[in-house]
Each structure stands twice: as C-alpha cells, then as structure tokens.
Amino acid sequence: MKDLIPPPALVSQRESAAAIKRLFENNVVPSYGRFDLALSHGMGAYVWDVNGKRYLDLGSGIAVCSLGHANAEITQALVEQSRKLVHVSNLYYHGPQGLLAEQLVGNIAHGKVFFCNSGAEANEGLFKLARKFGHDEGRFEILTADNSFHGRTLAGIAATGQAKVKKGFEPMMPGFRQVPFNDLEAMREALSPATIAILIEGIQGEGGVTAATPEYLLGLRQMCDEKRLLLLMDSVQCGHFRTGRFQSYQRILEGVADGEKFQPDGISMAKSLGGGLPVGAFWVRQPYADLLGAGTHGTTFGGSPLACAVALTIMDVIRRDKLADNARELGARMKFDLERIAAKYPKVIKQARGLGFMIGIELASDIPAFAGNDKPASIQFVNLLHEAGVLTIPSGMQVIRFLPALNLKAAEADEGLQLIESVVAKISP
Ligand SMILES: *Cc1c(COP(=O)(O)O)cnc(C)c1O
Q: What is the CA(345)–ligand 1 centre distance, in A?
C-alpha cells in the first residue's frame, strides 16, 4: 500500500537550505534580494535556521513580531478564536473588530478605524479618504517627504520618496509630490491649489531612522489648519508602542509646549499590530470619521475575527507587561551602548539614532574591510552579524536598523550588543 505520509528522509531533504533555495529559485518571483538564510522556527527573541544555528532576532520580521516568536498567548488566541470564527465577511458585525477598534481609538483620540491587511492598504485608505475630502473642491494632491516609504502598491510607490521603488513602473500615479523632510518652508512652498493632504512618517524607517522634529510636527499641524489640509501620519513602522508611546508623535512631542494637544487627522498602522498576522488599519479623526460612507471602501479579509482577536491579545499583553516602558527604557540603554561603541570605533560607526525600539546605526563611509565587495556596506554588515548570530534590518546603503520585539529582555539586548561590538571590533581599521 502506498504511504500517505512522505518518508522522513524526503522531509529533511526538502528542509536543507540549498533545497529550499532551489524551490525559491524555480518557483518564487525573484522580487527580493534575500539573505542566504533559511529559517525553520523561533522562540521568543530567537530563531533557528534549518541547520540548527540560533540567531538573536533584533529585527522581529520588520518590526512585526511584537511579542517575539511562537508566543504562547498569541497561539492561545489563535486557537480559541479559530474554534469560534476565523472569518465572516464585512457584511456582518462581530465582537473582536468592534473591541479592537475601541482600543485603537482609545489609544489615539476621538475618531474611527478601518481595518485592512497591510501597511500599503492602510495608506491606500488614507489616500482615498483625502481624495474624498477634497473631491468636491477639485483638490486631490498629497504631499509626502523625500526618503519616505509608504508601500509597494501603485499609489504607495507614487507616495514614496525614493526613486528606486518607482523605477520601471512609470508613469507614476498622479497626485503625489515629494519635498525634503523636516523642512517646513519646503512644504509651504510646495503647496498648490490642488493640495489636499500631507503625509509623513513620525520616524522614517526605510529612509534610515530619521525622526520628525517637534517643530516640524507642530508646524505641519498649523499649516494644515490654515490651508484646510489633512495631516496624515504613516505609523506602520514607528507606531504600536515601539517608541515608548502608542504613536511616535506622542513620544516626539513629550515635554514640548502644546505637544499633548497635537493630533493628526489620519494614521495608518500595520506591522506590529498583528504580531505576525497580516493586520492593517487606519484611524481617522472625528470630524472626518464618516467621510467614507457605505459602499465607498472595503476589503474581504480586513478586520477578521481571527486577526482582531490576536491584535486584541497583543494590546492586552503590552499593557499588562508594560512593554511600552520596556521599549522606551531598554531601547534607550541599547542606543546609549551603541553610541559608546560608535565613539570607540568611529571608523566603523558614525552615529546611533532613534527612539525606543526603533534604533538605527549609520556606518562610517569607506570602511576598508568592505572595499573589495560591491555590495552596499549595510548588507555586508548585516551579513557579518548573521555570522555572529544576530538578525538586523538594513536601511538603504549605510544604516542598520534594530526593531526588536517589544518584550525583548535586558539580557538578550546585552547579548546582542556584545555580538555587535565583536563584529565592529573585527572590521575596525
Ligand atoms: C512597511 C511599511 C509600509 C508598507 O507596509 P506593507 O505591510 O508592506 O504593505 C508602509 N509604510 C511604512 C512606514 C512601512 O514601514
């Protein structure tokens, strides 16, 4: 009789890194420059590759696995909710979506939430919101920042301030223009009679971990009020307590006069919200919360009971375990130590920057150890960290990002910093 279960030999053969890589080469669209790592499983802050080597994961996906890997409470939420309802369409009401919306609104301000499945989709919703808002006046243009990142859809790449994501996909969707980041005058000069909204990240992630200044945020708010524009914030990466506050602007404006009064008109979220499940959302401030009426926007999967049950569990755990404080305090300690390493090895690390668990180190230019290789310095550095057993995320050519799980422990952070310092010391001229 024929075996229904494949023999173990075949399974392990398929699990070899080379065999997995071949499956990708033969069957997966090659749109990613992947690292030469095939991962098999994880636990907490660690992941293992298929050869059994362990890595400390300081990237957590790309700021996605907010409670680390194989989190028991996420598993329990998945199992419990999947026994009741995995999915119902958005033609019906269900508890988890309502409860999650209430939590998000409660953490931001009076307004409403729309659920989707990704960051790009959340931004797409904000673009539609802005277009609807300006439609009857013929205003449609959205201004964004140089070095921003807003997703890979056609509108997302039109909004993104990086030439490399647009290349080959022209003509760009109309209605988006970029201006220098943190430059109020440039924004003011760019306004046109067609402008309807401004979209920025509180902290640019893909652009190299650059935070908006308090003056910029407050100045944009004033400009938007004067000109009747929507101020939209892409919090896909910098949001969800990563900086020590729910939203990065709340953290950036701490202690600033009138800072607590600041509110954007719309916020996009994703990444950490679902802890690894695809969950996206946008929040819209109250006067505009009913702009997208019945039939104007939708999605099949967004806000499913399963996704919302998991996101609710993550919110509960973050609150119960004070993980925002952990991100703030341990992140500050990591940044402090990275600054110490930068001071000790200035020919390798130029600067450490960021807030909470969104930290970037900028590499020095012309590191001699990287000279003979045409790969960007950031990629070469990340590869060396892989050899040392640490996962991090490159950002452009010169910056490495640390976006750990919000429940990273002090001992794990210290282990990571030691490994990072050992790599830095090794390549220091
Ligand atoms: C990742 C990211 C996006 C896109 O999110 P996807 O889930 O990949 O569509 C948008 N904006 C920012 C700031 C991001 O970091």
A: 33
Please report the pLDDT score of residue 11 as a whole number. 47
Facing residues of 55 across strands?
Answer: 47
- Cα-to-centroid distance, 145 and ligand 1 (Å): 15
**pLDDT, block means (10 residues), the chain with 429 residues:** 50 75 97 96 97 97 98 98 98 98 98 98 98 98 98 98 98 98 98 98 98 98 98 98 98 96 98 98 98 98 98 98 98 98 98 98 97 96 98 97 98 98 97
Cβ of 120 closer than 6 Å to ligand 1, yes or no, is yes
Name the E strands within 202-295. 203-204, 210-211, 230-234, 266-269, 280-285
Instruction: Return the residue matching tokens 């659920």.
Output: 115
Q: What is the largest CA-CA distance in the chain?
A: 78
> Which of 32, 62, 115, 150 has the most ligand 1 atoms within 8 A of CB, as the residue to mutate?
150
Q: How buried is 47 (Cβ within 10 angstroms: 0-12 exposed, 13-18 middle, 19+ buried)?
A: buried
Q: Tokens for 58?
A: 């300081």
62 alpha carbon to ligand 1 midpoint, in Å?
9
Nearest CA to ligand 1 atom 5: 119
* Residue 21 token pair: 């890589």
Alpha-carbon distance 319 to 317, whole Å?
A: 5
Find, among 227, 230, 234, 228, the residue nearest to 249 by Cα.
Answer: 234
The ranges of the chain annotated as CATH 3.40.640.10 are 75-320
**DSSP structural state of residue 38:** -
Q: Which fold would CATH assign to domain 75-320? A: Aspartate Aminotransferase; domain 2 (3.40.640)
**DSSP bridge partners of 56:** 46, 390
CATH 3.90.1150.10 domain extents, the chain: 13-64+324-427
Q: Is 249 in the pocket of ligand 1 (CB under 6 A)?
A: no
> Per CATH, is 13-64+324-427 categorized as 3.90.25.10?
no
CA distances from 40 to 17, 48, 197 (A): 10, 6, 43
